[in-house]
Description:
- Helix content is about 40%, strand content about 15%.
- By secondary structure, it is of the alpha/beta class.
- The strands form 2 sheets. Strands 1-2 form a two-stranded parallel sheet. It has a two-stranded parallel sheet with strand order 3-4.
Amino acid sequence: MPLAILTGNGLPELVNVGRKGPKIRSEDVAVIGVRDLDPNEKRSLKKSGVTVFTMRDIDEEGISVIARKALKQLDHLNRIHVSLDIDALDPREAPGVGTPVNGGLTFREAHLLMEIIADSNRLSSMDIVEINPVIDHRNRTAKIAVDLAISLFGSRIL
């Protein structure tokens, strides 16, 4: 898992790429929309210090509350990076992903999350992962990813 490597957990030959040691602090990571973890991932995340917001958290509190909690946790950072993992969305929304799991974010939830992050004026970079065009339906997932990225970079309705 790339996140584990970046936070210093994994094989030394991977953890020490570029420079020795972790590249980011676990306390500076918030993962939003988790709904399916294998037992090793659960153990690793619980020990890591990474803040995890599950789909249950989103269901109970709403995406805007969760987004603001995550941003508050990162208040001490001037810049943030967003790794937009498209398989966080429900496969009915984004079918072209490597690990489709029911019960993910709706397009509207993901869109609002991107807008709230953009409103923070702290976005410095992003990446988009987990789009598989071979299994996508008429490029639907890729189009959703582009729409979300545009919102993250500050596009507004008005």
